[in-house]
Amino acid sequence: MLILENSKLKIAVKKEGAELCKITSIKNGKEFMWHADPNIWKGYAPNLFPIIGALKNGTYNYNNASFKMDKHGFVRGNTDIELHEQTPTSLTFLLTSNNSLYKIYPFKFNFYITYLLKDTSLEVIYTVKNCDSKSMYFSVGGHPAFKCPIYKDENYNDYTLEFETIENAKTHLINMESGLISSGTKPVFNGTNKINLSYDLFNNDALVFKDLVSKKVTLKSKTYGNILSVSFNDFPYLGIWAKPNANYVCIEPWLGIADHENTNQELKTKEGILSLEANSSFKSQYTIKIEDNHLV
User: Fold this and answer.
1) What b/e sequence results for 130-149 when a residue is b if at least 16 CB atoms lie within 10 Å of its CB, and e otherwise?
2) Model's pTM, two decimal places?
3) Is residue 147 part of a domain?
4) Residue 162 maps to a domain
5) The domain containing residue 57 runs over which residues?
C-alpha cells in the first residue's frame, strides 16, 4: 500500500491494479471510500482499460482476428503494474504491454495512472502512450466507490446525486443476462438535476448516461449537505452503480461504453472507442473533491 498525504487528506493506493482504496481526513479520520467488503463487492476504485464494461460473447475483432478480454479490461487487479514515480504530491503507476497482454490486445503501449493530491482534491490522470507503429484503439475510465452514508446517524436514502444543471438524459438499459447495452432507455431526472439514492435503484444494473449536459456530480446528504463531488470534463459517458442494498455508490467517468447487443464486435468501430496514432500520447483526468466542512 502506498500513501500520499497533505495537511487535509491522506490517500492510499494498492500497487495491484494501481487502485485507490482510501481517502481519509487527516484531522478527524473520516473515510470517504467504500471498504471493499468481499461479501458484497470487493472493488474500491478499479481502473478500466482498454475497454469499458462487457464485450459481446467476451470477444472483439481486429484485423480479421478474434480476441478474448474480460469485462473492463486487464488493469483491474493487475500485478505487473509498477510504481513509476513518486513526488510529495503525486503517485504515478505504469503498465507496459508485454507478450502475455499482446495475445489479447495486439498493441504496444505504456499506460500511466497518476494520483495528484491538491488541498482537498484528488486528480486521477490517465496517460496512454502508443509505442506501436500502427494506430491503437482503446477506452479508459474510472470506477470509484464512495461510502454512503458517511455518518452513522444516516441512511442510504438520505443521499442524492446532484448534477450541475437540469438534465433530461435517459439511462441506457443493460441486458442483465449479457451485460450489454440494449436499445431500451428510461427517464431518470424528469426535469430535475437530482437522482435520489435508494437500495433498489440499481436492481437492473448501472445507470448509463451518454448525453449529460453536466460535467460535475455531487454526493449530497439531506442532513450534512454536500459531501464530495466528481468532475469529469474529459469524459462523455458516466455510469452510476452499486450492488443492490450496499452502502456505497460508484460515480464512473468513462471514455467508452460496454458493447451494444447489436454490435458487429469490430474494435475499430466500437461505440466510444478512441484511436491513437503511432508514437502519440493521450491524456484525460477526473477530479474528486471533498468538502472542507467534513474534514475538521
Assistant:
1) bebeeebbbbbbbbbbbbbb
2) 0.97
3) yes
4) no
5) 2-152+228-234+243-294
CB 73 within 8 A of CB 113: no
Q: Amino acid letter at 177? A: E
Question: 57: left (phi > 0), else alpha (psi -120 to 50), else beta?
Answer: left
Q: Is 34 helix (H, G, I), strand (E, B) or coil?
A: coil
pLDDT digits (tens, 9 = 90+) for 26-57: 999 999 999 999 999 999 999 999 999 999 99
Percent helix, strand, coil in the chain, to 5, is 5, 45, 45
Per residue in 262-281, pLDDT (tens digit) is: 999 999 999 999 999 999 99
Q: pLDDT tens digits for 227-239?
A: 999 999 999 999 9
AA letter at 116: L
CATH of the domain at 106: 2.70.98.10
Q: Which of the four pLDDT bands, split at 50, 70 and 90, describes residue 201?
A: very high
Residue 275 is assigned to a structural domain of this protein: yes
43: closest CA among 51, 52, 35, 54? 35
- Rounded average pLDDT over 245-255: 97
Place of cell 477506452: 139
